[in-house]
UniProtKB/TrEMBL annotation:
Coiled coil: none
Source organism per UniProt: Palleronia aestuarii
All residue ranges annotated as the MmgE/PrpD C-terminal domain in the record: 285-449
Pfam families attached to this UniProt entry: MmgE_PrpD_C, MmgE_PrpD_N
Protein name per Swiss-Prot or TrEMBL: 2-methylcitrate dehydratase PrpD
InterPro entries: MmgE/PrpD_sf, MmgE/PrpD_sf_1, MmgE/PrpD_sf_2, MmgE_PrpD, MmgE_PrpD_C, MmgE_PrpD_N
Domain called MmgE/PrpD N-terminal: residue spans: 18-256
Family listed: Belongs to the PrpD family.
MF term (GO), any: lyase activity
Superkingdom in the source lineage: Bacteria
């Protein structure tokens, strides 16, 4: 950063400088007990997702691809036996974590922070041999940066075709490295400037393929690299978020003149006080979060009105526009099925759940599920649209073959801060995921270590324990 730009940034700090200051101070900041608890809570949830996704097909493909490029190193990857360099380990772990649609999220930004931030933090923690306190602080900072930026651009970035998880995750992963290395404000701002030029990710995955699985990994890898570049002297552009030609300008309508990002109070955008992490949700179902409200509504209706899938004549979902875009009528791919409101609701009605196995090839080809899915309609409900993104509302109306018509609206899907999974339910979810790779005793030991991570003097043994023997 040149001298005049540095003076200008310090005199009239914008969003970039405000976040850089937060990150620079995070290593010694006095975070409250609630925020530290949420950091452990989300680390446990995300690591379960990393382990379970470690053996999925897209993760295997990614490992083969990076091996073909000559990638190697000593950093372990949760749930796997191979070793890689730090940024490649983060790429693979992020891909694994985002691969099964069981990762956490932040409603106000429509973003999945854990599966970018935690893989970056694990790889960086092994590399730096930091203590558990620094590990948690880096996660808190990463969530704060990623969540606040995503809240500032949502939903405008979505309508431009951008996927917020990798596009904003790169800044969060950058923050992770900056906290672990204790970089000052100038270096953090330079690191954000590098991250800004790597921000990417499109919603093309709704049209097929499995590239979405890699999105979190892309953000984790590029974010760590951006931090290392700045640490080694790269000068990034100041104010990369808010300047003309910057991130907000390109991704979220700054070019239209409708929004003035130069005066944005970035640390108050979205929800969560004092930190955004406290408002992140946990997924109880293995599908797109926009579909969780309809699942909850349908489940409640089936229980309260005592009917089964074979009694359903039709289902209608009224929801907000971002969610209604998931009225996908093909589900031949794993990703497509997890993004499709008709397929997910038909499956939930028939099997009473939306676990990972519901989206396998056999279920996707099931003619009875397809027949019920064809009787699911979706549209934008004006009241739901008005309430989003303050809440994630959905109204499900079920017409039964006996002539009854019942409906229910959900505003806070299960797993949200207002309707949370308690620690027992969270650990049960972790065990379900972790025991896909480890035995029960190993999984319980990992969970216990993660709950106690705050007191860990050296993170390397804990990160090593997450790896599977070769």
């Amino acid at each position: 950063m040149n001298q005049q730009a540095r003076i200008d940034a310090q005199t009239t700090p914008g969003a970039t400088r405000a976040l850089a200051k937060f990150v620079a101070e995070a290593r010694t900041a006095s975070f409250d007990d609630k925020t530290f608890h949420r950091a452990r809570y989300h680390a446990l949830d995300t690591i379960g997702a990393l382990i379970a996704g470690a053996v999925q097909e897209t993760t295997e493909t990614t490992v083969k691809a990076v091996r073909a490029t000559g990638a190697g190193g000593e950093v372990p990857v949760p749930g796997r036996g191979e070793r890689f360099d730090m940024t490649t380990a983060a790429l693979i772990a992020g891909t694994a974590g985002h691969g099964l649609e069981v990762d956490d999220g932040y409603r106000a930004g429509s973003v999945h922070p854990g599966t970018v931030i935690v893989p970056a933090a694990l790889a960086a923690a092994w590399q730096t041999r930091c203590d558990g306190d620094t590990f948690l602080r880096s996660i808190i900072a990463g969530y704060e940066v990623m969540c606040r930026i995503s809240a500032a651009i949502h939903p405008r970035a979505r309508w431009r075709g951008f996927h917020n998880t990798p596009a904003t995750g790169v800044f969060g992963a950058t923050a992770v490295w900056c906290v672990m290395k204790g970089l000052d404000e100038d270096a953090v701002e330079s690191a954000f400037g590098a991250a800004c030029s790597t921000a990417s990710g499109l919603f093309t995955f709704l049209h097929g393929g499995e590239v979405k699985r890699l999105h979190a990994g892309f953000g984790a890898r590029s974010g760590l690299l951006s931090g290392v570049l700045a640490e080694n002297g790269l000068q990034g552009p100041p104010g990369c978020l808010e300047v003309r030609d910057g991130f907000f300008h390109a991704y979220a309508g700054g070019d239209t003149g409708e929004f003035d990002y130069s005066t944005l109070d970035i640390l108050s955008v979205g929800t969560g006080s004092p930190h955004a992490m406290t408002e992140c949700y946990i997924k109880p179902y293995a599908c797109c979060r926009h579909i969780h409200g309809p699942i909850d509504a349908l489940t409640l209706l089936m229980r309260e009105h005592d009917f089964t899938a074979d009694k359903i004549e039709a289902m209608h979902v009224g929801t907000y526009r971002v969610a209604a875009a998931h009225d996908l009528r093909t589900w031949s791919s794993f990703t497509g099925s997890q993004m499709s409101i008709p397929f997910v609701l038909a499956s939930a009605a028939r099997f009473g759940r939306a676990d990972i196995d519901v989206f396998d090839a056999a279920h996707r080809a099931d003619p009875e599920t397809a027949a019920l899915a064809e009787r699911v309609s979706v549209d934008v409900d004006p009241e739901c649209e008005a309430d989003y993104p303050r809440t994630r509302p959905a109204r499900v109306t079920v017409t039964l073959k006996d002539g009854r018509r019942v409906d229910h609206r959900v505003d806070q899907p299960y797993g949200s801060p207002g309707n949370p999974l308690d620690e027992a339910a969270l650990e049960a979810k972790f065990m379900t995921l972790a025991t896909l790779v480890f035995d029960e005793a190993e999984a319980r030991s990992i969970a216990a270590s993660l709950w106690a991570v705050h007191d860990t003097a050296d993170m390397r043994p804990l990160v090593e324990s997450l790896a599977r023997a070769s």
